[in-house]
């Protein structure tokens, strides 16, 4: 039985191709996570502010993104943009765009939560000590907010990695798509191909996400007090 | 066509969520009472299910298992897959609630002569449920969204129908219908949980 596993992975360029698929998966997740953080932080600060319009508008955006399955968003951007505005984006760009839209919304909510959960007196004491507004931000607010934020951000990262297989539906050759192609080609000759290939992918995802989850839990426990 | 597809999505989603609640509750209680041995199995299951994508789980169930002699139909696969995933997430959600029930609550319950089952029924579960409700509602909505991948196991759900229509080329209407259908399915659930959360704030909640 194990022979067939090895033979599937060794056949042709199967293993290197799986690794290329993994590369695509990681590229999408890492780029989108980075962009989400960049966009999400100002968004969260805006949501926490007391300015009139912007917070409620962002709230609406967040709720919409939350309710829509990512798959629907992918379809929306992949099929409708090209049709109506003649904007032709590659599948990779669409995926990164959609994942960033989603990630930024979730990030924004995390930042908002972290900032508003800080008690008001932290600002006031800082100001009372004679710190300027920006000094209060740099020395008092940001260090505390980051601590509250980090576990959530890491959690979001694993969620995004676990959602990347959705790009399968817009024909991007990520890990899962490559796996399926390999199974289709070698399934006839090696009956157990599907078990081994999907099994391998299962294990790869687990090996990526599990350490990240552990890190998040560790940080949460350490910074709780 | 869209209605039938929406119905299928809702039915599969309901089954998946209901079974997930059963599995999740079981796992949470096992971990709460630290049942030896079973506890380790449950722990391993939760980590495995939480750290892998549903799509990969479904692919394995649908394309992998038949080769090993276990053939599951598309619908069974979908429900089993969703339960596998949801059970683990809900177990974590319930566990958070159970841990939040104070030691003093349990001891007070015991001292007025409640037996173990009564304690669970009248003291622990109501409080735990109230605390973990936000996590539960987030998970349920997440599970409903995850149903969108069921078309890979050849089920004619909303995404599947949409994909078919897209091939015929009327993408605007299709995508609009798709968005509206999912809104119609998920928004009421989201609102319902919001209402429930406000209703279920028991004394001492959140303090």
Layout of strands and helices, then pairs:
The complex is a heterodimer of chains A (225) and B (207).
Chain A: H1 2-10, H2 14-48, H3 53-67, H4 70-84, H5 91-117, H6 120-128, H7 133-163, H8 175-186, H9 193-222
Chain B: H1 2-32, H2 38-50, H3 54-64, H4 74-100, H5 103-111, H6 116-146, H7 158-168, H8 171-199
Helix pairs in contact in B: 1-4, 1-7, 2-4, 3-4, 4-6, 5-6, 6-8, 7-8
How would you describe this structure in keywords?
heterodimer; A: 225 residues; mainly alpha; 9 helices; B: 207 residues; MetI-like fold; disordered C terminus
Q: Please summarize the sheet with the most strands of chain B.
A: none
CA-based gyration radius of chain A: 22 Å
Shape of chain A: elongated
Tell me the overall shape of chain B: flat
Overall strand count of chain B: 0
Task: Describe what this molecule looks like in 3D.
The complex is a heterodimer of chains A (225) and B (207). Chain A has 225 residues and is mainly α. Chain A has 9 helices and no strands. The longest helix of chain A is centred in the N-terminal third of the chain and has 35 residues. Chain A is elongated, with a radius of gyration of 22 Å. The model of chain A has no long low-confidence stretch (mean pLDDT 82). By secondary structure, chain B is an all-alpha fold. Chain B has one domain: Orthogonal Bundle (MetI-like fold), CATH 1.10.3720. Chain B contains 8 helices and no strands. The longest helix of chain B is centred in the N-terminal third of the chain and has 31 residues. Chain B is flat and about 70 Å long. Classes of the chains: A mainly alpha (225), B mainly alpha (207). At the A-B interface, helix 4, helix 7, helix 8 and helix 9 of A face helix 2, helix 3, helix 6, helix 7 and helix 8 of B.
């Amino acid at each position: 039985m194990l022979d067939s596993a090895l033979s599937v992975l060794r056949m042709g360029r199967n293993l290197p191709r799986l690794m290329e698929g993994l590369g695509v998966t990681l590229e999408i997740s890492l780029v989108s996570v980075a962009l989400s953080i960049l966009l999400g932080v100002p968004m969260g600060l805006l949501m926490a502010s007391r300015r009139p319009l912007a917070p409620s508008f962002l709230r609406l955006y967040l709720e919409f993104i939350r309710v829509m399955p990512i798959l629907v968003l992918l379809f929306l951007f992949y099929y409708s943009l090209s049709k109506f505005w003649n904007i032709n984006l590659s599948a990779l760009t669409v995926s990164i765009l959609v994942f960033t839209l989603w990630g930024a919304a979730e990030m924004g909510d995390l930042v908002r939560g972290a900032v508003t959960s800080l008690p008001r007196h932290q600002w006031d004491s800082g100001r009372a000590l004679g710190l300027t507004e920006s000094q209060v931000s740099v020395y008092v607010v940001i260090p505390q907010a980051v601590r509250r934020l980090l576990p959530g951000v890491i959690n979001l990262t694993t969620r995004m990695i676990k959602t990347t297989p959705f790009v399968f539906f817009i024909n991007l050759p990520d890990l899962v798509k490559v796996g399926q192609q390999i199974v289709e080609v070698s399934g006839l000759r090696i009956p157990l191909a599907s078990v081994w290939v999907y099994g391998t992918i299962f294990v790869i995802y687990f090996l990526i996400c599990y350490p990240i989850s552990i890190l998040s839990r560790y940080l949460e426990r350490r910074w709780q007090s | 066509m869209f209605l039938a597809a929406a119905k299928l999505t809702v039915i599969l989603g309901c089954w998946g969520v209901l079974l997930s609640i059963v599995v999740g509750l079981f796992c949470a209680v096992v971990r709460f009472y630290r049942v030896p041995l079973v506890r380790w199995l449950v722990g391993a299951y939760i980590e495995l299910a939480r750290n892998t994508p549903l799509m990969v789980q479904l692919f394995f169930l649908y394309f992998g298992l038949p080769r090993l002699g276990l053939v599951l139909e598309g619908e069974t696969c979908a429900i089993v897959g969703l339960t596998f995933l949801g059970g683990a997430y809900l177990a974590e959600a319930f566990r958070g609630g159970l841990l939040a029930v104070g030691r003093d609550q349990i001891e007070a319950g015991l001292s007025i002569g409640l037996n173990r089952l009564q304690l669970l029924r009248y003291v622990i579960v109501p409080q735990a449920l109230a605390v973990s409700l936000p996590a539960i509602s987030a998970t349920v909505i997440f599970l409903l969204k995850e149903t969108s991948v069921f078309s890979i196991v050849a089920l004619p759900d909303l995404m599947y129908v949409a994909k078919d229509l897209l091939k015929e080329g009327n993408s605007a209407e299709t995508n609009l219908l798709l968005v509206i259908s999912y809104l119609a399915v998920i928004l009421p659930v989201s609102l319902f949980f919001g209402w429930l959360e406000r209703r279920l704030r028991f004394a001492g909640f959140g303090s």
